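Standup notes
- DV: blocked on the single-chain target, sequence here:
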Amino acid sequence: MSTINDSGGEIGRDFSHLLKSLGKFFKQLVDLQEGIDREGTIYWIKNNKRMRGANAWLLMCSIMIASLGLDLNSPAIIIGAMLISPLMSPILGVGMGIGTNDRETLMISLQHFGVSIAIALVTSYLYFWINPLSHTNATPEIIERTEPTVLAGIVAIFGGIAGIISASRKDQSNAIPGVAIATALMPPLCVAGYGLARSEPGIFSNAFYLFFLNSFFIAVSTFAFIRYMKFPFKTYPNAKESRRTTWLILLVSILITIPSIIILKNVVEKKQREQLVNNFIIENFGDDDDPQSLGYSFTYSDTSRALAIKLLGRKIKSTELRRYEKLLEKAGVSNTRIYAIQGESLDIQEFDRLEKEMTGYKKIVNQLEKTEKEKSEVDDLVLALTRKIDSLQRDTFPITSVNNEITALLDEVEFVNYGLIKGPTQAAQDRHVLFVKWKNRLNTRQRKAVRKKLETYLAGRVQGVTCEIRELD
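- DV (later): unblocked, structure below
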């Protein structure tokens, strides 16, 4: 009996020792006290927070490189610009000034943070104003910085934590956390300059809000770390002042975050709506294995939506379109009007694609002459594609020559397509529609100018036919 008790006691002691060892291991794993240099951190931030001299030149160079990367849609160039960006120090100075109750450091940091913004906006504005590439559409890298969501704030929080942790070490290594912070700051600031140069207030306001959101949360992360690591106060605040500062930061955080949450909600709803439309097209108009359409364009506003479908050798009556609208509403996309481009014309790109596909099937036929069953199946595919091409070539509108002429005359146009939209009733007239695909995104003024040129061209080129011009996304 005593042997069993002794054995149980040893197991208990071993288990207790194991728990203590694990606790010690995890404590050391997350311990930030080891290697911290409070005085060195304060000295480094205070001496690097000023945006002048070398720092100002580095900022101008990095903003210029980042603007070029955004214009060329090159993530590699943008990352290269982040490696030399000195944007980190003024924002860390703001967080440290609040965290240590050092009003002098706070005011100087805010002053040089404002100088940084001015330098960045002027540099990016001049680049996008002078560079001829900037007169084309906004690239995907630019557009990505015009939807400031709360997820971007989370990136800024962890970037700020990485920055202040690295700055607080005795063996500092600021390049990588500097990139983490620049990721959240430089691209949106450059896009704000792009919005100014292109006279796009929406782009400017969204991008600058994203920059401000990220800057605020980087500063908040620094403040939280400074207080968590118990950095010494320059002037010790009383309890009431500390509580007021904490509540003020919390309130401002909520107010700043609310718009980003709303934007995130809209982005998620947009993605869900687009997925529902895509599923509806696949279910009702075929997929890659059995295509019945050449694509679609979905546009929407708060009150109405429109879905234009380019049909592949297929005719749909107006009554059937109303049935599809009800099916789309049941799928979750309500208040949407469906327009069927009935295949009276075919743009050159799609014609070439079908021709190549048919040629490929003909080659397969020649290779499978010995296998009658497989040969018959491929022959059927060739025949189906041939019929589709024949039906799409039978158009009364000279779309091929019109497309060639317009794309040669107007650099802004990628291609044009023609469709005849049937009237909802027999008494209603059919509408001739010219669908225009821009090479790049145009602002309102540019679109108006190009549309006017198109109207003038059509009036002289296609007499007796009044075409409505619509833009494809």
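- Follow-up: The first helix runs from residue 2 to 29.
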